[in-house]
């Protein structure tokens, strides 16, 4: 264990968690949590089917990224968790629109999106967005 004031303590990123609300193209508010480390890069985390940003795997990924000094953003797709809207079974295109709104928000904040990681259905949604962009 390092002593207070050692160089190891100085290298630890300062982490702030901030609730962020991003409007989607359907007028609904998407609610997310930004794990801000001061990095210019960010990783967007997408939850799986009938889940939320609070699922263990998404929270653990955000913490692991924090520990590496990389900012992360985990959010609820519309109709899930804290976000507005109605849950839709198999709504990949609509969730892709939500993810696109999140991407646009962070581009506007001048952050570099280093990666989009998703669990289960969240992984498929990320792939749909990548296909739309290419």
Which features does this protein show?
134 residues, 5-stranded mixed sheet
Helix/strand/pairing category: alpha/beta
Q: Based on Cα principal axes, name the global outline.
A: globular
Q: Approximately how much helix is present in the residues?
A: 25-40%
- Helix and strand string, N-terminal first? HEEEHEHEH
Q: Please give the count of helices.
A: 4
Which stretches are low in confidence, meaning pLDDT under 50 for 5 or more residues running? 5-10
Task: Give the tally of β-strands.
Answer: 5
Distance between the termini: 47 Å
Radius of gyration: 15 Å
* Residue-averaged pLDDT: 82
- Main sheet? 5 strands, mixed
Describe the structure.
35% of the residues lie in helices and 25% in strands. The chain is an alpha/beta fold and 134 residues long. It has a 5-stranded mixed beta sheet with strand order 1-2-4-3-5, with helices on both faces. A hairpin with a 5-residue loop joins β1 and β2.
Write the layout of secondary structure elements.
Layout (H helix, E strand, L loop, with lengths): L6 H5 L4 E8 L5 E8 L4 E6 L9 H12 L3 E5 L16 H17 L3 E7 L2 H13 L1
Parallel strand pairs: 3-4, 3-5
Antiparallel strand pairs: 1-2, 2-4
Helix pairs in contact: 3-4
Quick structural gist:
Helix content is 35%, strand content 25%. The chain contains four helices and five strands, in the order αβββαβαβα.
């Amino acid at each position: 264990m390092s002593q207070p004031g050692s160089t190891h303590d100085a290298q630890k990123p300062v982490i702030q968690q901030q609730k962020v609300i991003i409007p989607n193209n359907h007028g609904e508010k998407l609610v997310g949590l930004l794990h801000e480390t001061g990095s210019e890069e960010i990783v967007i985390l997408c939850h799986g089917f009938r889940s939320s940003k609070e699922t263990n795997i998404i929270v653990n990924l955000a913490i692991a990224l924090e520990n590496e000094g990389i900012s992360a953003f985990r959010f609820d797709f519309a109709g899930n968790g804290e976000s507005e809207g109605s849950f839709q079974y198999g709504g990949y295109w609509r969730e892709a629109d939500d993810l696109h709104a999140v991407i646009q928000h962070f581009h506007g904040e001048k952050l570099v999106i280093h990666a989009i990681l998703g669990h289960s259905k969240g992984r498929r949604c990320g792939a749909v967005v990548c296909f739309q962009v290419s």
